[in-house]
């Protein structure tokens, strides 16, 4: 790994700080038309002459004369509550006791500090991104949470493909994962991958096999969370895509490109980030495949780590309790806290929860698919809502395919051989879904897995997926007494999102 | 590990792009007096009530500011223009192409100045990041 010297690290932090500092300045000085003098709801007026200045309150405008009383106690009002009035000549400022009056004709300029909407919107995104990036650095430096990383050998290089069984942070929610290996190429008639632990976790992998599909070239194959392969041939862009505040997201979600969407942050009570999607529905279509390309934010990992730390010296006890909970309980808690991406469908009887996407982890976008039954939908539009906790997901793309799945050759390829970083054979641990696990408890644990390449059907294109199963346990070293009141409150739906949003807003307000 | 390196590269790219964006808006409004108008000023814009005149070749004498009204077709750079706000509008006298205004009737003088500290810091940072990206790409 490349090392960065102290100067480079310092510069990186200074730049992060500068960028955030710049983005935090949302006020801009604007000239205010004189005609708006009597209509402003701002409470504080600063009168500036060439040699005098006054702060006045209780202003009134009558016959073109602005009057007000000199403020007895100098207050420090908020920027957004002040009007600065520049008057000429000085003699135009009439002082009668504590009453100041000026003719509007003698106002040379009026200024207000106004919120720069464009800058503010960008600031929200900028600060959010800034925080994300700082969090990303913290996560990287402290080796906080994520999940096992998977790399493919391409013959000339090693390419990172993504993460597996993200979110399976307890034994009861161990799950299957289907990760497309986009870069993998046969090397000496073998497909080779690496599963690595690069964070402070105990990672337990139960199973690893490849699923190989040979299919027509004009078809994309995606495997859903149930292990069912779907063909994607005629994917459609949404005709409407918007967030909870009505902002159009078509630019961000219509293509797999650099335009992305993650939550718009406002200081309000909204906890769930909702993406409204609308697709033109072909006649007689009874099923559709919803395709997304997205990843989780580092923020989610970071805040889950903060939550874990709040158990303090009782963290291990909490882990034991979680491991005894039912799968349903833990899954429901996760859904209640907006961690997976819930999908709701508008039907004739109202909005219905139909399914959810598992968390893909923060390392790479995952192109994922869900098959959706449209039998309850009336009309020529399919209207969906994608719902998750604010700032938990980062989206690149959303589309829908109404084509029928085609038949294609599917080959399950068992592990041929595998060795850990010491050269020890670990293949038997990964061959079957059983109670034997490849346990990777330490940073830089690495297992190399090899699979025999099956013969490819002529004239086809090949897509390779890693089918894995496992769970992991974050390793925390927080001490001290747990904050039980807050932790108990986390049982209530949405409280984890509230906790994370409050945390973010506090961070933001501290810098404004 | 491999993952850490790629994320750092992504971070570097984002920081560079953000720094580029930020550098596009480094102007800040500065207030001065009629005696401290920057010497590099090429034109004044005199505002009074809802009117405004762009003037050049200004001079200040006997408590009066005098200048020649510039045709609308001539454009000046933002950084080389100073705004003068006068009141009441009747104080602004125009005779032919000559505009005069008593200094006592000037309520405010301001201009947009480059924020050197911010610009220098971000330019330096941007240059460093650009070089880092190029070096990183070559490695």
Produce the secondary structure layout.
The complex is a heterodimer of chains A (512) and B (139).
Chain A: H1 6-23, E1 27-31, E2 44-48, E3 53-62, E4 65-70, E5 82-87, E6 94-96, E7 99-103, E8 107-115, H2 117-142, E9 149-153, E10 158-163, E11 175-180, E12 190-197, E13 201-215, E14 220-223, E15 229-232, E16 235-236, E17 240-242, H3 250-253, E18 261-262, E19 272-280, E20 287-296, H4 298-309, H5 315-324, H6 327-336, E21 341-347, E22 350-357, E23 366-373, E24 381-389, E25 393-401, E26 409-413, E27 417-419, H7 427-430, E28 438-440, E29 445-452, E30 461-474, H8 484-489, H9 495-510
Parallel strand pairs in A: 2-5
Antiparallel strand pairs in A: 1-8, 2-3, 3-4, 4-7, 5-8, 6-7, 9-10, 9-12, 11-30, 12-29, 13-26, 13-28, 13-30, 14-15, 16-25, 17-19, 18-25, 19-24, 20-23, 20-25, 21-22, 21-24, 27-29
Helix pairs in contact in A: 1-2, 2-4
Chain B: H1 2-23, E1 27-32, E2 43-48, E3 51-61, E4 64-69, E5 81-86, E6 93-95, E7 98-102, E8 106-114, H2 116-138
Parallel strand pairs in B: 2-5
Antiparallel strand pairs in B: 1-8, 2-3, 3-4, 4-7, 5-8, 6-7
